[in-house]
Design goal:
The chain has 138 residues and is mainly α. The protein is built from six helices and no strands.
């Protein structure tokens, strides 16, 4: 992880580093909650481990289906790196397919747009986009 942080903005996008860190934190929480441990050997990762992790994300973390799928995909990327480097011999994701659900998003009404604009102005007062955004809301 330290090497990844050092490569941030050089070879790796900062968002990728954040994704790795989030994945690590969630796995630690999962291991503590489910297995009462802080770490496992890579060869202990199995299909059951992945299914338990999915269950943990949906029940303990209250993640939606699509958020859970994204976390599982992020872990799969790290698993692929471990397999490429020879640290993991079998693919715990073998035969697992991910399907995100279609999400219908509602449009914000004028009061919600104004509320978001006020929150954004107080959080990011120097942002140039507010002139355009406030004209759009007005």
């Amino acid at each position: 992880m330290k090497n990844r942080k050092k490569l941030s903005r050089i070879d790796i996008a900062p968002a990728t580093v954040v994704r790795y860190e989030t994945c690590r934190k969630l796995i630690i929480q999962f291991l503590q909650c489910t297995y009462h441990r802080e770490d496992i050997y890579l060869d202990e990762m199995s299909r059951q481990f992945i299914e338990d992790y999915e269950f943990f994300l949906k029940t303990e973390r209250k993640c939606s289906h699509n958020t859970t799928i994204q976390y599982l995909k992020n872990l799969k990327k790290i698993t692929r790196i471990a397999m490429t480097k020879g640290w993991l011999k079998t693919d715990p994701y073998l035969g697992i397919q991910f399907h995100k659900e279609q999400v219908e998003r509602d449009f914000l009404d004028k009061s919600e747009l104004k509320k978001n604009c006020l929150i954004s102005r107080s959080t990011f007062p120097d942002c140039r986009r507010y002139g355009t955004f406030s004209r759009f809301v007005a």
